[in-house]
Amino acid sequence: MEQFVRKRLTFLTSFWNKLRPRSNLDTCSLGYFGSDSVSLHSEPTSVCLIPKSSLFIALYAFTARSADELSVKAGDKLRVLKEEGEYVLARRLLGEAATGYVPATYVANLSQGTSARRPWYFSKISRSEAEQLLLSPPNQHGSFLVRDSESSKGEYALSVRRHASVSHFRIGRSAGGRLHLQKGRPFASMEQLVAFYAADWTALRSPLLQPCAPATPPERDGWERPRWEFTLRRKLGEGYFGEVWEGLWRNTVPVAIKIIKADMKAEDFTKEIQNLKRLRHEKLIQLHAVCSVDEPVYIITELMRKGNLHSYLNSPEGKSLGTSHLVNIACQVADGMRYLEEKHIVHRDLAARNILVGDELTCKIADFGLARLLKDDIYSTSSSTKIPVKWTAPEAANYRTYSLKSDVWSYGILLYEVFTYGQIPYEGMTNQETVRQITRGYRLPRPSTCPPEIYIIMLECWNGNTEERPTFFTLRERLGLIYRRVLSSLS
Ligand SMILES: Nc1ncnc2c1ncn2[C@@H]1O[C@H](COP(=O)(O)OP(=O)(O)OP(=O)(O)O)[C@@H](O)[C@H]1O
């Protein structure tokens, strides 16, 4: 009756709306999803070329957060060009042509009609999750969803946001399978039930204005890759943050994959990965990609086939290196550190174990960003035993004052490791004893295999006065000169 009167006596619409509120839902959001047929008349040429399987519809409005994302309105017809993890790369088919990434949960494939017709259905979401979602942007007054009932199997609940609160309504199922929110008002399908209460929300006292939008996944960038693109092949080692594996990207490119342990704090390394992304130098391990959307987080870097410098120096190949090779290694590390110095980045864990060796004696600094933030806990006063004391400058070991100058001290220890083919510094001394001796002015003696001019540099790095320690810029220059001299003496 009401439908009839509304249709025929349109001049009474405002009266009817006051008497029995009716949202505009049936003519906007819900209306988009009523049909599987795609009308793309404004772009006829492309229509016939597009396979139906790649035709999608935007279920919710999405506002692009970066240049490579695409803003869409609910109901926009899209062609999905490729799927990438939590996003799809989509081209808008009507209106202004544009291509960009849209969250995969925001679109539905038109050839698989159900989700396109039920953008408000969130199946296994709990009551409290529903509340949290409805009260978060971009959801607003009038956002609603239907979920499975937590207590009664086969039944549902309708959750509706009314300004800053959420109301829940139980949707029961009769013996015949019909659904009802109010006694005596059964519906054959959930779509019919929702359409009815969207048109007449008197019983709910809250309008159903738009389907609840799912949470937006983290912003994508060029570094984020889907996990399936990587295969793990062989475990290379294990560090504080987790295991490191040799792997393949898309079954072709060899990579190293660090699998971050589940108990590491996500906020910390998300921020830190940002830091790694902006550092690029041939003497720093290059970040290739991250998989940070789900756990465990993967950090993918270039693969250095010969492992860490400490083990390498102890290997038969390492033991066979001559002085020129050792000076060359020292130059490469100073080069990478000079870059960090320019960027005002403190490494805090410079040691041979954190230098990686590749083919043709290529050396690269690793663990630079991670050491700084991720390891904050182990650098705190409360767990001072975890500090790599024998590599750490006295002011950093005693007062936690890390600086580029404390990195220079560590570099001196790294020189000692290099020119002793991987010996442990202060061998036979405990950490405590080492700190005590250093504070009294003791310094490591010159190893027999170390040229005197290199030992002078080590001593300068271990100057008790931080200001008098050389910069990495100077170290690189001086070692470069030594290298050229050593090479010419060989020829
Ligand atoms: N990119 C890589 N290529 C080849 N091997 C690697 C790579 N990254 C790490 N490894 C190997 O895995 C081991 C563990 O690396 P990881 O960086 O996790 O720990 P670490 O630096 O030894 O210790 P920590 O992280 O506690 O300082 C390294 O010692 C090295 O042998």
UniProtKB/TrEMBL annotation:
CDD domains: PTKc_Srm_Brk. Gene3D superfamilies: SH2 domain (3.30.505.10), SH3 Domains (2.30.30.40), Transferase(Phosphotransferase) domain 1 (1.10.510.10). Its EC number is 2.7.10.2. It catalyses: L-tyrosyl-[protein] + ATP = O-phospho-L-tyrosyl-[protein] + ADP + H(+). Keywords: ATP-binding, Kinase, Nucleotide-binding, SH2 domain, SH3 domain, Transferase, Tyrosine-protein kinase. SMART domains: SH2, SH3, TyrKc. Residues 51-112 form the SH3 domain. Residues 120-212 form the SH2 domain. It holds the Pfam family SH3_9. Residues 230-481 form the Protein kinase domain. It comes from the Eukaryota. Belongs to the protein kinase superfamily. Tyr protein kinase family. This is Tyrosine-protein kinase. The lineage of its organism: Eukaryota, Metazoa, Chordata, Craniata, Vertebrata. The gene is LOC106482533.
